[in-house]
Amino acid sequence: MSTATNVLDVRKVNKSFHDPVTIPVLKDVTLQVKPGEFVSITGKSGCGKSTLLYILSTMDTDYEGNVVIDGESTRGLSGARLSAIRNEKIGFVFQFHYLLPEFSVLKNVMLPALKLSRKSEQEVEADAMARLKELDMQDQALKMANQLSGGQKQRVAIARALINDPLIIMGDEPTGNLDSRNSAIVFDIFQHIAAEHHRSLLVVTHDNDFASRTHRNIVMDDGRIVA
Amino acid sequence: MRLLLVIAVTILRAKLKQSIVAAVGVMFSITMFVALLGFMNGLNDMLDGLILNRTPHVRMYNEMKASPQQPIELSEADPTTHHFIRSVKPKSELQKLRNAMGIMHTLERDPRVLAVSPRLVAQVFFNVGTTDLNAQVSGIEVEQEMRYYMFSDYLVQGEARDLATGNNTVVLGKGLADMMEAKLGDVVQVTAASGDRALLRVCGIFQSGIAEYDKVQCYASLKTVQELLGQPSSYITDINVKLKDILLAPGMAKELAQRFDVDAVDIQTANAQFETGSNVRSIISYAVGVVLLIVAGFGIYNILNMLIYEKLDSIAILKATGFSGADVRRIFLALSMVIGLVGAAGGLVFGFALQNLIDNVPFVTQALPTVTTFPIDYDPKYYIIAVAFALVTTWIAGWFPARKAAQVDPVEIIRGK
């Protein structure tokens, strides 16, 4: 992978909701994300920024246009292949932390790597511990996921997003549910990921302060990119 | 696949109570299935044994009847005439099987035949004081009868072997012995239809379970009966054939009747009602067992559906982090199969225990003096069928919810919060 390749290349994406009447939500959205770039998307509620993010995440395939991830067009790929792309190349952080409550913190972080099964379980466990340590969460590793506070859960979710060394980390309001102190921590972690690990980040947020501190802020309005 | 199984088991452990309820449902139905079938078939075998053990697969005999073709019909004097001979009487000697020894030798060499045993059945009277009791004496080859027709199983007193070794010994039916107040070692007087008399020593008392039969039946050795009737040692009236495969009996009976020009009746024809009874009991027990399993299947289906509804978030996150729809389906199928396997294993253990329990319940019946507890058929066949049914049921019960889980749209769940 050369640095010249865009991690994410979005070409003329259109999407409409058809229920009960056809309403266009995305209109000719085109954007690129380069390696190591920290990009934020802002816009009013209902402007389509989250919808766009889920299309980019490959989870939503009901759109027109094309999304190219790491040089691979995702148009028409099978569900299994899209899952594999998500597993290997994309890390997710959501507003609600979405850890698996049945598993320990450590297992939660390990699961995507176990699914990828490129390393032995011992190596994956060591990796997961290293990620948790980076985020200062190593003491919580053996707790169950539902015993953590909101900020802690979000850090575990970030560790999980990082476990497979993805090309890009996508966030849907990752700080939306956190107090300002925890928001700051999460922002610092993101910045660190972009700078040190040279990973791309694409974060949807309504926090203008957060957005203003990223490398690039994309503003959306009524389904179009306006800035 | 191992990872998916680990996830399935972890989810099960987190929902331990529901999982146990589902597994207990399967366990209960397997337990009942195994116990019910074992018990029903034990009963079937016992009831069948009541008749089948003692009944030859093919019985060859001569029916006491007039020849179907009278000599006059063979006459070619004038084909236009019609004869008016009525009330033709049978000849008494017809009961004797002609060339019995030859038939027996031929049958013994037949590969389908397990055992051939001769019998001589005759009507006699027992003289008790001034009254005569009507009875039927069967002259038997004692060793053969013990080996192939469980003769000694039905003796409530005495030894079957004494019948073979002692001359002029007799085994009386229980009802008959009671009427004569005869005990072991007593001597009874018997009169043949021809008027010949003999004294026989009682060496055993048998009970078949059919009271009417026990009132009129008695057994002696073949030789004793031949002497009583004043007949040579080639004189027998029945040849009983036991086959290696009982299902061949109807065909064999037809074949033998034609080949040796005798009457032959097969066990299926003679005891059609028993087969029907056994089949009906088997069908009922299978039906009940399968219904139990289906009910357990619905239990699993319900619990899994509930589980999936509760786990929508987890399914969404699994999909978001790279697990495919097929992976999610396999997780929930594995979950169902784990419930099924655990339930089935428990069911087999409890089923065996319940069979054992039934096996130890006292069951005393006049019909079978050798039976003291309820009969159980421990055939592993029923265990295998039960497990196979359980796995198929849980697979089907798990498949529909699992498919639903696979189709969960993660975007809808994640955005819907």
Characterization of this structure:
The complex is a heterodimer of chains A (227) and B (417). Chain A is an alpha/beta fold and 227 residues long. Chain A has helices at 49-56, 79-89, 105-116, 121-134, 150-162, 180-196, 208-212; strands at residues 8-17, 23-33, 38-43, 64-69, 72-73, 90-93, 168-172, 200-204, 216-221, 224-225. Chain A is built from 7 helices and 10 strands. In chain A, the strands form 2 sheets. Chain A has a 6-stranded mixed sheet with strand order 6-7-8-3-9-10. A 4-stranded antiparallel sheet of chain A has the order 2-1-4-5, with helices on one face. In chain A, a hairpin with a 5-residue loop joins strand 1 and strand 2. The longest helix of chain A has 17 residues, at 180-196. Chain A is globular, with a radius of gyration of 17 Å. Chain B is of the alpha+beta class and 417 residues long. Chain B folds into 2 domains: 2-52 and 274-416, no CATH class; 58-68 and 90-265, no CATH class. Helices cover 55% and strands 17% of the residues of chain B. Chain B has helices at residues 2-14, 16-52, 71-74, 100-108, 142-149, 160-165, 174-180, 211-216, 222-229, 249-260, 267-270, 272-310, 312-320, 325-359, 380-406, 410-416, and strands spanning 58-61, 113-128, 131-140, 155-158, 169-173, 187-192, 197-206, 217-221, 238-243, 263-266. Chain B has a 6-stranded mixed beta barrel with strand order 2-3-8-5-7-6, surrounded by 4 helices. Chain B is elongated. The A-B interface holds A 50, 54, 57, 59-60, 79-80, 82-84, 86-88, 92, 94-96, 98-103, 107, 111-112, 114-117, 160, 164, 172 and B 3, 7, 10-11, 13-14, 313-314, 316-327, 409-411, 414-415, 417.
